[in-house]
Amino acid sequence: MISPLDEILAWVKSLAPVQQMDVVFLVSAMPGLNVDPSTDTMTSVFLDQIEELRSGKVREQALILCLRTLIENFIISRRSDPDGWKKTKAILESLSAENNNPTFAEMAERKQFEGAQWVSSCKKWNEMAKIHLTDENIKRWFNLG
To answer: What is the number of domains present in the chain?
Structure first.
């Protein structure tokens, strides 16, 4: 049985590099981690530190629950709604028109792409979590895995 932690790490690794850094930055405040957010290697440092903390089933279960909670609260709940990204894009377009500022227009275009990427990544998380990260499946892995 594959560990739910492996599923979480596979999801992180599947993200675009910018998204990986975003996730790592937001979850790196988790107790036990010491990730310097100012380095380009923060994702690999994070992955290495998670592997180091993964000693024994009880600790691994704690890592699973912490990461699931942090990712769902800091990332999934805030980036999965396409309407939120559309509103942000509309605000930036409005600022561009009001201020005759092309920088806001460029930001609006990036938000459209960024939003589409995040909505897709959040959908993949939800599909994976529905199978591997339910309390029942985590307990089953802990007892049988």
So the answer is: 1
DSSP per-residue codes, 35-89: --TTSTTHHHHHHHHHHHH--SHHHHHHHHHHHHHHHIIIIIHHH--HHHHHHHH
Range of the domain at 77: 4-144
The mean pLDDT of 83-91, rounded to a whole number, is 91
Q: Would residue 66 be called left, alpha or beta, if left means φ above 0 and alpha means ψ between -120 and 50 degrees?
A: alpha
Neighbours of 68 (CB within 10 A): 22
Q: What ranges make up the beta strands (E) of the chain?
A: none
Q: What is the pLDDT of residues 123-140, one digit of tens each?
A: 999 999 999 999 999 999
- Which residues are within 8 A (CB) of 58 and not within 5 positions of it... i.e. 6 or more apart? none
